[in-house]
Amino acid sequence: MWKTKLCLSAHFTNIDINDQIRIFGEAGFDGFFTEYNGNLAQYRETAEKCGMYYQSVHAPYVRMCYLWRDCADTEDTRNELVKCIDDSANAGVPIVVAHAYIGIGAKKIDVPNQHGISNFSYAVEHAVKRGVKIAFENTEGEEFLDMLMTHFKNVPNVGFCWDTGHEMCYNHSEDMMSLYGDRLIATHLNDNLGIRSFEGEITFLDDLHLLPFDGIADWSDITARMNRHGYKGELTFELNRGSKQGRHDNDKYGELSMERYAAEAYARACRVARLLGR
Questions:
Q1: Exposure of 256 by Cβ count < 10 A (0-12 exposed, 13-18 middle, 19+ buried)?
Q2: Measured between alpha carbons, how far is 2 from 118 in angstroms, rounded to an integer?
Q3: What's the mean per-residue pLDDT of the chain?
């Protein structure tokens, strides 16, 4: 889109990632991001053929709590993150998005600590050597994110990835941009319905990743906050076609072909970009 690069998430589904990249480009998107696996070089090749921008790689995240522990899985988890950084650098991808933590229930037993700082420092130092930026994303465990963002505040290679839907569920709608907006280097833009539980219990089932304007997000406020912090980068949307187990919020997307879904996602992305006033 004129003056604004728009990117979309490619997910592991029954549709090959390479086909998704091609379809996204045909729909009008300028770029994409993928989750991490061993095919980054192939995705890069497809991107070049399609004239697409490989915006970022999402690092593995299901074991990130182990980086804050001294346990049998700690070293493997750290090495997995470093391998992701290496493969991203080799594929020419400029940003790795990483979770600071994962595990809503595990927060009861884990606390931010120097052991975690040591593990993340090892990964950050490697990223600096390889010329890759790490964007830490807001998820559950804001205290872990805060410790990392504070510790690495003077490291140019470390920044913030703002997930708008996560803010509405995992973060109880706390204004994460007021904390880290000046260090924003990546976005995961998506809509949500907030926390369903009347008692305020957080669950991953509330993390819907709806198309913009299909939830309760205030997109005028979201774009105003980006403008307030002077964000000029690409707008990357992380959207899900499938519903979470036991929910049906995203079912209507799965009824569309990937081509029609990408076209609708692009139209919504353009509406968001228009609100930025670029």
A1: middle
A2: 43
A3: 96
Distances (CA, A) of 155 to 5, 57, 146, 152: 26, 20, 15, 5
Residues 116 and 147: their CA atoms lie apart, in Å, by 9
Take residue 160 and report the two structure tokens written for it: 């913030």
Q: Which two tokens stand for residue 134?
A: 């790490």
Q: pLDDT value at position 235?
A: 98
What is the residue type of 112?
P
The dihedral formed by the CA atoms of 114, 120, 121 and 122, expressed in degrees to the nearest 10: 120
* Domains of the chain: residue spans and CATH: 6-276 (3.20.20.150)
- What is the C-alpha to C-alpha distance for residues 45 and 58, in angstroms, rounded to an integer? 18
Three-state secondary-structure class, residue 3: coil
Q: Which residues partner with 187 through β-bridges?
A: 162
Residue in 97, 95, 146, 100 with CA at minimum distance from that of residue 120: 100
Please check whether residue 186 is in contact with residue 215, taking contact to mean a CB–CB distance below 8 angstroms.
Answer: no
Summarize the confidence of residues 177-202 as an average pLDDT.
96
Query: Burial, 255: exposed, middle or buried (Cβ in 10 Å; 0-12, 13-18, 19+)?
Result: exposed
Amino acid code (one letter) for 11 = H
Tokens of 32: 């994409």
Report which residue type is found at 149: M
